[in-house]
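The following record pairs a protein chain with its ligand, zinc ion.
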Amino acid sequence: MKPIIAPSILAADFGNLQRDCEMVNASAAEWFHIDVMDGVFVPNISYGMPVISAIHTHAKKPLDVHLMIVQPERYIKEFKACGAAILTVHYEASTHLHRTFQAIKAEGMKAGVALNPHTPVSVLEDIAADADLILIMSVNPGFGGQKFIENTYKKVAQTKELVLRTNSKAIIEVDGGVTSANAKQLIDAGAQALVAGSFVFSAKDPIATISELRG
Ligand code: DX5
Ligand code: ZN
């Protein structure tokens, strides 16, 4: 099966958001990846609901929203209202993750959990079966254009084992430093969705680059 490609809009040209959304619409990408950063959970601030609403106006594909914010449970209804289809929160940022998942699903969205590079996959043992998506961070969250962390392959394989063992339906997604140099090895390890920001948007031909990532 070909992987889901989710171009990260963080690397788009914000002065030409409509143009870049239309590029993703015309490409083989399945999702738009939307990074929300609060300057507290991560040392950077990206964008919030008004910008996501604008992306949603032009996007013809689901919005895969990755919250890098503390206490993400405060804003679940707001992210639904601006167009999120998948809402992913960090394990490290949500004290009552099971309750957060229930609230996300009650709004009709898919619920995802993200793990920082230092967080072991084993912490998901009792929540994996409830997850629609598990996002393995392959860089420390906060910035695009960082170097891929090699330990990710092992974590993806461990996540696949956990998903199979717990009868979870979760999609395994990898985010950070993804390029055509590591995509195949990630897919072979069990990744089903790949986020790519700078590799796609800095390419001469982003549409061809998205197809190349799909393999
Ligand atoms: C990092 C974000 C990523 C980022 C990926 O904190 O979660 O989604 O946009 O960008 P690249 O592909 O450039 O590493
Ligand atoms: Zn992300």
